[in-house]
Amino acid sequence: MQTVVISKKTRKIVRKLFSKRYKSYSQNYYRDRSFYMYNNIESLCNLFVVDKEEIETSKPILLNTNLSFGSKQNQIKKHLGTPSCYIKKTVNSLEFNIMFYKIYMGGFKTKQEVHLYKNELFYFSYVFSYLNAPDKEILQKLLCKKYLGNECELNDKVITDKYGNKIFITENVDFTINYLTGNKKILEEFVAINESTKRIRKNLVEKNQDELLYKL
Q: Whole-angstrom Cα distance, residue 205 to residue 13?
């Protein structure tokens, strides 16, 4: 059988092609993730609507011991390092920065999302793909143990600290642990922009209808 010898130059080209393809896939994945959340201002308002029973915790909800809600982007990069992907989004003139990290935690492979508004942390999450039921149960038990000191069922509950910060689980395609700021001013800004957008749309619809009534 003839041995095929691949030159160093060819191997380099192949690696580069596959690297670009994987990078393109990763970029598309992260853009898709950010699209649904930042599709419109109403989607952002809905993030704060957690219709679940609240359980209070005496522990503060933090990104880690050095980072809390309101932390700046440079502080986050200092402690978490350079993200796998960085995306800027603008929604109704509001600017957001999103950093994505691929990490391993206790044997679990996860994607960490860090979201900033006005350069301040307001939301982060851990996204787990392809988890089985026992793995989901392990993660829920650990959250309960850390923040509540006992076992509980978190699917229909939200953990809240004294600052109003929240932890809750969502299950769509992925199993996601969400951490959300209790800063009410942020929600008030989102709601104000959302109401303004609705008024503008309503006025535009009425204007178009008036024009049709005049010209038809």
A: 55
